[in-house]
């Protein structure tokens, strides 16, 4: 299915993609931009260092296998500078490589091949930790992470944290279909609950949004998951 373009969200995050596979780099750049982020790409360590020196970034998506060196070198530099969160993308799936990446300071580690919704969910978590994009807008709806609130035409409702984060994830990456598993990983990490928690959250959000005059914001895609369009 072709991606559904989305308007840039308020306070767009700046993301640097360091990937020498040009086809994958273009895909990541496209999908991050469609999700409302400001993305830049580098194919080598040298290009990445130049871009990092020239501007501020909130997150670096870093491949480890680069033509002019090991991405772990750059990982250490990014962590030491404290300039950005770090999410590693690599074909290295062995435990030793994962451990090395985490010791180098990566906040997260995603093994290729990966799904775009899962990548976006992990990007969302990393940016949430960094505190960027405090307010996300969708038509008359405004979501404020600082207050865990949603506001529609001056009427404000405060939400439980995980309900808020689920709604914010779907709104921020509107047009994307997220499976129940995608949402569970984003909200709970490795401690995924053995229940119908996501279905309950979606039910509660639909009911609360209807009370604010908004219906059909969260849509169910049969046999796939949930989406905001």
Q: Can you describe what's shown?
A:
There is one protein chain. The protein has 229 residues and is an alpha/beta fold. The chain folds into two domains: 14-130, 3-Layer(aba) Sandwich (Rossmann fold), CATH 3.40.50.2300; 135-227, Orthogonal Bundle (Arc Repressor Mutant, subunit A), CATH 1.10.10.10. It contains eight helices and 13 strands. The protein has helices spanning 22-34, 45-54, 71-81, 95-103, 116-130, 161-172, 180-188, 197-211, and strands at residues 14-18, 38-42, 59-63, 65-66, 69-70, 85-90, 108-111, 135-138, 141-144, 149-152, 155-158, 219-221, 225-227. It has a five-stranded parallel sheet with strand order 2-1-3-6-7, sandwiched between helices. β1, α1 (22-34) and β2 (38-42) form a beta-alpha-beta unit. α6 crosses α8. The radius of gyration is 18 Å and the shape is elongated. The model is unreliable at 1-10 (pLDDT under 50).
């Amino acid at each position: 299915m072709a991606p559904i373009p989305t308007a840039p969200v308020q306070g767009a995050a700046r993301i640097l993609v360091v990937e020498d596979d040009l086809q994958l780099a273009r895909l990541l750049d496209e999908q991050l931009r469609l999700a409302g982020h400001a993305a830049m790409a580098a194919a080598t360590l040298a290009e990445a260092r130049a871009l990092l020196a020239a501007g501020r970034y909130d997150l670096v998506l870093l491949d480890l296998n680069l033509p002019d060196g090991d991405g772990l070198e750059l990982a250490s530099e990014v962590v030491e500078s404290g300039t950005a969160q770090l999410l590693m993308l690599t074909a290295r799936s062995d435990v030793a490589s994962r451990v090395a990446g985490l010791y180098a300071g990566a906040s997260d580690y995603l093994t290729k091949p990966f799904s775009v919704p899962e990548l976006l969910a992990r990007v969302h978590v990393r940016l949430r930790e960094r505190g960027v994009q405090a307010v996300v807008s969708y038509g008359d709806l405004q979501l404020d992470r600082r207050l865990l609130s949603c506001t529609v035409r001056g009427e404000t409702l405060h939400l439980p944290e995980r309900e808020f984060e689920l709604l914010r994830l779907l709104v921020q990456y509107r047009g994307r279909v997220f499976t129940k598993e995608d949402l569970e990983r984003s909200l709970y990490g490795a401690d995924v609950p053995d229940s119908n928690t996501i279905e309950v959250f979606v039910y509660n959000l639909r009911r609360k949004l209807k009370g604010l005059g908004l219906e059909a914001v969260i849509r169910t895609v049969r046999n796939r998951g949930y989406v905001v369009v």
